[in-house]
């Protein structure tokens, strides 16, 4: 049973909460964590025996085996061993000794989270390596792992895209778009609630006619009030405000807001403008940074915003790494 007052027990509990796959050995201040290796840029593996070169983007995880000594963290550094079949011995040794230097740099305090985060960042850059020479058997193993990992990621991405599409199709019917062609953002949220139009503003006058013996004056007033309230709600829904720039416009005629008591212009949007708006909504993806509509002409679904140069997916508008194909 670990002593709950011990700093080491506190750190192990934190690691288990942060890293779901962190395994702690029973009644010991030790355990292991696996960090996945998804490279931002593919690493070249060379097999001289077969005169073969291949690039790999997904690599088997690095297993971090650690032990927290009795005098940790005050006078002793954590003991760390790294396990990765594809990492060269000299690289493994450098990374293992980094745990001790990190402990000193942080002032001899709890450093396992900082050390693991450091390894995760290095893993994305292939630990600073650009190419690596390996045996034929290891290269075959890495190629199989890379293929299976890529297929798994693609299936996960497909499920994500399908979910986004369902949500988009469900919301498209009720989405109101800003009519300005150069922005085309969606009106969203409740920052600008619909205005409450009072009956007085609607110009409704209620007068009881005492000289009308065949009708109940109160019933007439109630009916008129209900009808006026209904009309007020219909008129108030015309006002829409785009939150990002506070642009107010009429939902029916798509023009700058003209007030509740001004009829919408009969011409509204001409056919060419309506066709352009429809084309933009159906054939473009909106940049997740600046909401600029971007059309894919050819190639894969990795596109770049023409305004802010953000890299994102044409299908779901999710952010993508610059070097991610």
TrEMBL record:
Please list the GO terms describing molecular function: ubiquitin-protein transferase activity; zinc ion binding
- Carries keyword Transferase? yes
Instruction: Give residue ranges for domain RWD.
Output: 10-126
- Look up keyword Transferase and say if it applies: yes
Source organism: Epicoccum nigrum (Soil fungus)
> Which keywords does this chain's UniProt record carry?
Metal-binding, Repeat, Transferase, Ubl conjugation pathway, Zinc, Zinc-finger
| Stretches of the chain forming a coiled coil according to its record | none
The taxonomy runs: Eukaryota, Fungi, Dikarya, Ascomycota, Pezizomycotina
Q: Which SUPFAM superfamilies match?
A: RING/U-box (SSF57850), UBC-like (SSF54495)
Q: Its GO biological process terms?
A: protein ubiquitination
Official protein name in the record: RING-type domain-containing protein
Domain RING-type per the UniProt entry, residue ranges = 68-325
PROSITE patterns the record matches: RWD (PS50908), TRIAD (PS51873)
Q: Name one Pfam family in it.
A: RWD
């Amino acid at each position: 049973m670990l002593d709950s007052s011990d700093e080491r027990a506190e750190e192990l509990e934190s690691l288990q909460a942060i890293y779901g796959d962190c395994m702690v050995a029973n009644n010991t201040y030790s355990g292991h964590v696996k960090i996945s290796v998804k490279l931002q840029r593919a690493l070249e593996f060379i097999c001289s025996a077969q005169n073969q070169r291949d690039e790999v983007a997904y690599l088997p995880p690095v297993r971090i085996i650690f032990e927290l000594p009795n005098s940790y963290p005050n006078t002793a550094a954590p003991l760390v061993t790294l396990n990765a079949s594809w990492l060269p011995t000299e690289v493994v040794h450098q990374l293992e000794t980094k745990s001790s230097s990190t402990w000193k740099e942080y002032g001899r305090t709890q450093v396992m989270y900082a050390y693991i985060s450091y390894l995760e960042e290095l893993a994305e850059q292939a630990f600073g390596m650009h190419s690596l020479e390996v045996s034929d058997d290891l290269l075959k193993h890495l190629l199989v792992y890379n293929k299976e990992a890529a297929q798994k990621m693609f299936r996960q991405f497909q499920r994500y895209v399908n979910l986004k599409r369902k949500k988009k199709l469900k919301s498209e019917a009720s989405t109101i778009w800003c009519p300005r062609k150069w922005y085309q953002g969606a009106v969203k949220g409740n920052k600008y609630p619909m205005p409450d139009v009072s009956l007085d503003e609607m110009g409704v006058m209620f007068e009881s006619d005492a000289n009308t013996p065949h009708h109940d004056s109160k019933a007439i007033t109630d009916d008129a009030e209900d009808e006026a309230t209904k009309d007020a709600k219909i008129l108030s829904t015309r006002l829409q405000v785009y939150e990002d720039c506070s642009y107010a416009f009429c939902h029916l005629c798509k023009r700058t807001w003209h007030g509740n008591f001004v009829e919408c212009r009969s011409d509204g949007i001409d056919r060419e403008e309506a066709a352009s708006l429809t084309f933009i909504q159906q054939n473009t993806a909106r940049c997740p940074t600046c909401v600029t509509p971007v059309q894919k002409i050819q190639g894969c679904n990795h596109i770049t915003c023409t305004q802010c140069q953000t890299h994102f997916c044409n299908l779901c508008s999710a952010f993508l790494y610059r070097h991610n194909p």
